[in-house]
Structures are given as C-alpha cells and as structure tokens.
Automatic annotation (TrEMBL):
One of the Pfam families matching this protein, by short name: THAP
GO MF terms, alphabetically ordered: DNA-binding transcription factor activity; sequence-specific DNA binding; zinc ion binding
Chief site of localization: nucleus
Xref: PANTHER family: THAP DOMAIN-CONTAINING, THAP DOMAIN-CONTAINING PROTEIN 1
Location of the THAP-type domain: 1-90
Identification of the protein by name: THAP domain-containing protein 1
InterPro entries named among the record's database cross-references: THAP1/10, THAP_Znf, THAP_Znf_sf
C-alpha cells in the first residue's frame, strides 16, 4: 500500500514513478515542527510519535525550499529540503493548470 501525502486535501502517492518527493516532519527542531503542524492544521499538542509517521509531498514546497547543486557538482539523487522549509497550500502545478484552464 502506497503512502499518501498528509497535507489536507492532497492525494499524491509515494510510488516508484511519482514525480513528487516525500518529506518527514522536522521532529527535533521544535519551533519548525510547530510551523509544519500549523501549516497542516494539526493540533499543536499532537504527540511526536504520531507526527513522526506523517509525510508531506514536494507539491507543497517551492523550488526555493530545496537545496540546489552548485555548478560543477553532480545532480542530487533526491531532493533535499532546506532546514527552514515550511509546507504551503500549493497543489501540483499540472493539476492547478487543469483546474484553471480546462474547467
């Protein structure tokens, strides 16, 4: 069974051919964890054990939220979030395009 994104209303799945990357909550950085919890509408007193199981897909982060490679470096195999990244209520750009222009 494939894991789905835990952002409210998102149905992106973590499967082998998915264009999305999936990211864990920052459990050790308490302040950042609270920002993520608020962004997802989760109660702030939710236990860390439950939060550790949650994942958010890359559709909820901007390109600026990810580390980039420097010129001359090899491309990273997976996208890595910056330590300051907080998910936002974005949807996959293809889905947004379809909703706006094909409706």
């Amino acid at each position: 069974m494939a894991r789905t994104c835990d952002y409210p209303g998102c149905s992106n799945k973590d499967v082998a051919d998915s264009p999305q990357s999936f990211h864990r909550f920052p459990v050790t950085d308490v302040a950042l964890r609270k920002l993520w919890v608020l962004a997802l509408g989760i109660h702030v007193d939710t236990k860390v054990e439950k939060i550790k199981k949650l994942r958010v897909c890359s559709a909820h982060f901007s390109d600026d939220d990810f580390l980039s490679t420097c010129p001359g470096q090899r491309q990273m195999k997976k996208r890595i979030l910056k330590k300051s990244a907080v998910p936002a209520p974005q949807v996959n750009k293809t889905v947004a395009y379809q909703l706006i222009y094909e409706a």
